[in-house]
Specification:
two-stranded antiparallel sheet, PGBD, alpha+beta
């Protein structure tokens, strides 16, 4: 009788009497309600069952009633057990929790206290250098000699005379600087015998053919030792030398800015980027760290997924890794 499926179906009177005799029901019932028997709608000669109604003996009950479904009628508890609080909703007895409110400690009409140390800029003697002297600080003789050596090696690989000198390379770089603010439609026009196009400074410094020879053989790295994973491998030695020079001569300041910068370029190159809504939309994108007055401390070209990222910060993503990499360089 302990099977749960047994108690799901209605018990017959015989089964219910068996449970009462075996004391399976702990509470004494008030009575037993018997449902109509199976043949309740059949025509019978009499409507009386065998036996006395006032003195019921279970053994004398007919099989029709023993097979009928029955229920136990228990006595309802008295009204003395009823409490007036039993009719109240449970929400009246639940203590309301106080709402979590944020508390802010601030002072009205006063500036916030500065928790940073007061920055004292280092006072140095100002050096009034000429533009040429300032240029040679970054493009010193060692850097120019390295460019000359790579250019001569490349010209010899092409069966040409590798006899470029350091002075000629300085003249070549000077022509490039002048062409930035005194531009003409064609490069050869600087050496023409026309008053409106000839530049006497350029034509007196270097010949047209010599300038063209250096232009066609200019190299900043050895083609036999290039890194295939670096899209700027031919310029990487130049970038590394300039970054070192920029950092060595950078003034010590508190505020630094690190952001992307575009170098305009409209030719065809795999590293050319397009940024919508920018003043310079087409060109090369660089990560640049500068000071408040625009002095460049560090720069690194953007190469997409091939951008050189330190393994220490690679799991943080591209944006965070380049910023932390720049911060690591500044504290070294």
């Amino acid at each position: 009788m302990s099977d749960k499926r047994y108690w799901k179906k209605p018990l017959t009177l015989a089964e219910l009497l068996e449970e009462l005799e075996s004391d399976s029901i702990p509470q004494v019932p008030k009575g037993i309600v018997i449902f109509p028997p199976e043949n309740a709608n059949d025509t019978c000669d009499t409507d009386e069952d065998s036996g006395d109604e006032n003195d019921v003996v279970p053994n004398n009950l007919p099989g029709v009633q023993l097979r009928a479904q029955a229920e136990i009628d228990f006595e309802v508890e008295s009204d003395n057990d009823w409490d007036s609080d039993d009719g109240l909703p449970l929400s009246n007895f639940i203590e309301r929790r106080p709402k979590n409110s944020k508390t802010f400690a601030y002072t009205l009409n006063k500036d916030l206290e500065n928790s940073f140390l007061e920055w004292q800029p280092i006072q140095n003697v100002k050096n009034n250098r000429s533009p040429g002297t300032t240029f040679k600080i970054f493009f010193d003789k060692d850097l120019v000699e390295e460019i000359v050596n790579f250019s001569n090696v490349y010209s010899q690989q092409k069966n040409r005379t590798g006899d470029i000198t350091v002075d000629e390379m300085y003249c070549f770089l000077g022509v490039l600087l002048v062409s930035g603010y005194a531009s003409v439609s064609r490069r050869h026009m600087y050496w023409q015998n026309c008053d409106d196009t000839q530049n006497k400074l350029i034509s007196a410094a270097i010949s047209r053919d010599r300038f063209q020879f250096i232009m066609s053989n200019l190299h900043c790295n050895d083609n036999t030792t290039l890194d295939k994973n670096d899209k700027y491998c031919k310029l990487r030695p130049l970038f590394n030398n300039l970054n070192k020079k920029f950092f060595d001569f950078a003034p010590i300041e508190q505020n630094h800015s690190f952001d992307e910068a575009m170098i305009p370029y409209f030719g065809r190159h795999t590293c050319k980027q397009f940024i919508r809504g920018k003043p310079i939309r087409w060109g090369y994108k660089f990560w640049v760290g500068t000071l408040r007055l625009g002095y460049i401390v560090y720069f690194d070209p953007y190469q997409g997924s091939s951008t050189t990222i330190s393994e220490k910060y690679k799991h943080m993503g591209l944006g965070a890794s380049v910023v932390l990499q720049y911060a690591q360089i500044t504290i070294q």
